[in-house]
Amino acid sequence: MKYSRRVYRILGLALPVVTLVAGCNLAPQETEAERARLDEVGKNYEPTLEQRQLPELAQRPTWQDLLHYAFLANGDLETAYFDWKAAVTRVSIAGSYPNTNITLSYSYLFSGGKMKAWDRSTLGVGFDPAMSLQWPEKVRAAARAALHDAQAKGERFAVAKFDLQQKVLTTWLEYAGLAERVRIQTESVELLKMLMDSAQQRVRTGGPQQDLLKAQTEYELARNELANMNSTMQATRAMLNGRLGRAGTEALLPPEALPTPRTLAVDDAALIAVAVDNNPELSGLAHDVAGRSDALELARMAYIPDISPQLTISGNISQMLGSMMTLPTNLPKIRGSIEEAEAMVRGAEAALRQTRRERGATFVATLYALRNNERQITLLREVIYPKAKQVLTSSYQAYSGGTIGFAELIDSQRTLLEVRRVLVEAQIAREQRLAELETLAGVDVETLAVPTTAPSTAPATMPATLPATTLP
Question: In what order do the strands lie in the sheet with 102-108?
Fold first, then answer.
């Protein structure tokens, strides 16, 4: 009985100490802030897809509705979130201390002599001999490196978000542009039908058969082009549904007209400054550099010996407190690890420097393209389109009066049609470049300036369609 009480008393003293030590974590204080960021985003992704409340999309959804749906349902973005979550979890794993398990040992001596059972017993407390107890600062360095990796994964989640946003907006804009071109082509087909009917009447009254054949040919070519456009629209709709995480065959109607352009409320200098300061890809690379610097520091700490303390009690005969030291004798391996870490730091710094320059250059080039699209839109809308429309009206009047042939009339109609198509393409290109700028800068353009008037409840859209061409 007395022997059992002693054993239980020692275990009763040892277990609380073991429990207290096992609950330590040397992760940096910034870990909690990163976990809070993760938890805020995780509200959308922790429920399974079947459990989430996905918004109902209208027959003609706005681009805001499409983005909201895509952010909740897209599998690639969800994958980026769980990569981030796994990296945040690894910070606690890397910062756990002690880094090795605590072992309790017991042995009983069978031998002759009149020894008490307690004196024949040996109790030991130590650390797992298969893994040395590391110096605490080594664990802190490993946890810092893991935290920087988690922060980089968080920035890559932001990169994935803006990449998805650009893909959805670009595909939706292409879909809207195709729908507008279909409307223009439909008007062209209707116009050619009118001209073909007019040519038929002229043939009945002795007019040239050649004009009728030309009209019929142009009409059939226009119908074929319209059918091709409709087919392309269906393919684009399937791609857009795929971006949203939906089946490609689900119904999704394009906007009824090209929407009004999104406002870019800041000047070019402010935009370029934002691109440098907020780009999440550059932030992720900066965390990579910091993490590899911590890894280099950890590699250099390999020269510090690891010490594993041990406590042994053999009844009333002896009580021993000792330690086991692991000496860093594999010097070539340590030096190689340090050189490898230094190379990785230099490589990460070079990647950050080059990416910063490339992203800055790409941003400036995209901004130039956007401004050129705006110039082109103004020129087409205010100068070229009115003149082309005036030429077509005059040509139709001249054709009705018999002063020009059918070929000249068709050329005028083609010119106006081409002007309208180019204008639609310029409008769509401008909005696509704007979505690309958002991705490069890592910021939504609507957040760049505080509006001076109350915001409208209507969604931001792109330029309204031009009035349809009508014959006098």
Answer: 102-108, 121-127, 306-314, 318-326
Which one, of 114, 101, 121, lies nearest residue 319 by Cα? 121
Give the 3-state secondary structure of residue 198.
helix
Q: Is 245 left (phi over 0), alpha (psi -120 to 50) or beta?
A: left
Task: Report the 10 Å Cβ neighbour count for 372.
Answer: 14
Using CA atoms in the order 104, 110, 112, 115, what is the torsion angle rounded to 10 degrees? 30
How many of the other CB atoms lie within 10 Å of CB of 284? Answer: 22
The interaxial angle of helices 209-244 and 63-73, nearest 10 deg, is: 40
Pick the CATH number of 2-447 from 3.40.50.300, 1.20.1600.10, 1.20.1050.10, 1.20.120.1810: 1.20.1600.10
Query: Parallel, antiparallel, or unpaired for β 24-25 and 96-97?
Result: antiparallel
- Could you tell me which residue, 142 or 115, shows the higher pLDDT? 142
Name the residue among 246, 240, 226, 229 with its Cα closest to residue 173: 240
- Dist. CA 222–CA 356, nearest whole Å: 48
User: Is 448:266 a contact under the CB 8 Å cutoff?
Assistant: yes
Provide the CB-side half-sphere exposure for 363 (13 A, CA). Answer: 25
pLDDT tens-digit profile of 203-247? 888 777 887 888 888 889 999 999 999 999 999 999 999 999 889
Q: How far apart are CA 186 and CA 126, in angstroms?
A: 84
Query: Distance between CA 172 and CA 179 in Å, rounded?
Result: 11
When pLDDT is averaged across residues 291-319 and rounded to a whole number, the result is: 73
Query: H or E stretch including 308?
Result: strand 306-314
**CA of residue 411 relative to chain centroid, distance:** 47
Residue in the structure block whose two tokens are 């050129």? 372
pLDDT at 376: 92
